[in-house]
Amino acid sequence: MQALMVALMLPLTLLNVFGGIVSGIWLAVLGQWWAIGIGLAAIFAHVFISPVMLLGLAFGAPAAALINRGQYVLALPFVFLSQLFTYGVIATWCVAAFHIFMSRADHQTYLPLLIWSYGVAVGPWGALSERERRSGGGEAGLMATFFVQIAYVATALVVVFGTASPITWLMIFLGIMLVGLLAQTAFAAAIMFSHKPVR
After folding, report:
1. CA pair distance 19, 42, nearest whole angstrom
2. 90-95 — which CB contacts under 8 Å span 24+ positions?
3. What is the pLDDT of residue 196?
4. b/e per residue, 141-166, with b = 16+ CB within 10 A?
5. In angstroms, how far is the first alpha carbon of the chain from the final one?
6. Which residues contact 28 (CB under 8 A, 6 or more apart)?
7. Alpha-carbon distances, residue 7 vs 12, 27, 148 (angstroms)
8. How many Å is the maximal CA-CA distance in the chain?
9. Long-range pairs for 45-50 at CB < 8 Å and ≥24 separation?
10. Which H/E stretch holds residue 116?
11. CB of 27 within 8 A of CB of 113?
């Protein structure tokens, strides 16, 4: 898994660094100021997303308490529900971003709006995971961010090069996010079962 993540990081990093700049200039040339405005407003989305993510503590807190008592099997459903909540919020944000931009796209604005929507969809999660990483930890956020990037890019490639229906795009995106959810839950379970309980 780690080798795959490393191999995909270079193209994703290039997209993250240059995608917003190139598509922003492209949209400005096309006069799509509404899209630029929404994208710039989304820079501050993490301020509003953070409180929503705190709702996941409804599952995370019982999981932590059970883990500390060594009751790993009982903690596992709460760990899964916590991850499910996180991935659900991320997926909802991304699908909304995709819809907002791509529902207004025409033949001239299709590609720049698609690239711009990627930045709006993925940007807040990258910012949140970077903030978590700086405060110590953040592996879960990095993994979720990685999978949302892969899911969005894969979906975008199907949109650009395929003739699939919107339901198919959605299923591809959600399918990749489900893989991320299960991988992250398995990773959390492996860490959990490898530690001794705190007494």
Report:
1. 15
2. 90/125, 90/144, 90/148, 90/177, 91/148, 91/173, 91/174, 91/177, 93/45, 93/49, 93/121, 93/124, 93/125, 94/121, 94/122, 94/148, 94/151, 94/152, 94/173, 95/170, 95/173
3. 56
4. bbbbbbbbbbbbbebbeebeeeeeee
5. 33
6. 36
7. 10, 30, 16
8. 63
9. 45/93, 45/123, 45/124, 46/124, 46/127, 46/128, 46/131, 49/89, 49/93, 49/124, 49/128, 50/128
10. helix 110-134
11. yes
What are the structure tokens assigned to 100, written together?
A: 């907002």
At 142, the amino acid letter reads L
CA distances from 167 to 49, 158, 159 (A): 26, 12, 11
pLDDT < 50 regions, the chain: 198-199
Question: Which pLDDT score, from 0 to 100, does residue 123 have?
Answer: 85
CA contacts within 13 A on the Cβ side of 109: 20
Neighbouring CB atoms inside 10 A of 119's CB total: 22
| Structure token digits, residue 102 | 């791509």
Residue 170 exposed, middle or buried by CB count within 10 Å (0-12, 13-18, 19+): middle
Structure tokens at 189: 């379970």
**CA 183/CA 147 separation, integer angstroms:** 10
| Residue pointed to by tokens 């959810």 | 181
